[in-house]
Specification:
Elements lengths: L25 E5 L7 E6 L4 E6 L7 E7 L6 E6 L6 E5 L3 E6 L4 E7 L5 E6 L5 E6 L3 E6 L3 E7 L6
Antiparallel strand pairs: 1-2, 2-3, 3-4, 5-6, 6-7, 7-8, 9-10, 10-11, 11-12
Amino acid sequence: VRDYSRDKMAETLVLRGIMRVHTDWVTAITTPIDNSDMIVTASRDKSIILWNLTKEDRVYGLPRHRLTDHSHFVEDVVLSLDGQFALSGSWDGELCLWDPAAGNTARRFVGHTKDALSVAFSINNRQIVYASRDHTIKLWNTLVSLLFSLFQFSLKI
C-alpha cells in the first residue's frame, strides 16, 4: 500500500497480526534472507521461538519450536545466511547454535565471564563472533575452537 500524498517513495505500514507466546520481553527478532515464512525471536523468558507465518487474519504466525537451553535472558539471535542455523547469545554468558529444522541445540560456545550481548555469523558461516559485558569480543570457528579473544579497553569521556 503506497501513500503518494506526501512523497512518491513513502509507504504505509499495515499491522498484519500479533503473535504472543513469549512470557517476557522480546529482545531480538531475525528473519531469513530468502523471505521464507519464518521468524525467529529471542526473549527474556530464556527462550528462542521459531515461528511459521500463516498470514491468516486471525492467526498470522504459529510457534513451530520453543528452544530453552539458556539459563538466563536471551539477548540476541541471528540466522545464518543459508538459514540452516540460528545463533543465540544469553546473559548466562553462552552462545547456542541451533538447528531450526530439528528444533535442538547443535553446539554450545562457552568462554565469557559475563552476559553475551551481540552475536553474528561470518558470510561463509565458518566463524562466529560475539561481544560480552566482560569487555571482550570472541571469534570462534564453527568446529568449536576459540580463534581469538579481543579485549576492549574502556574509554571514559
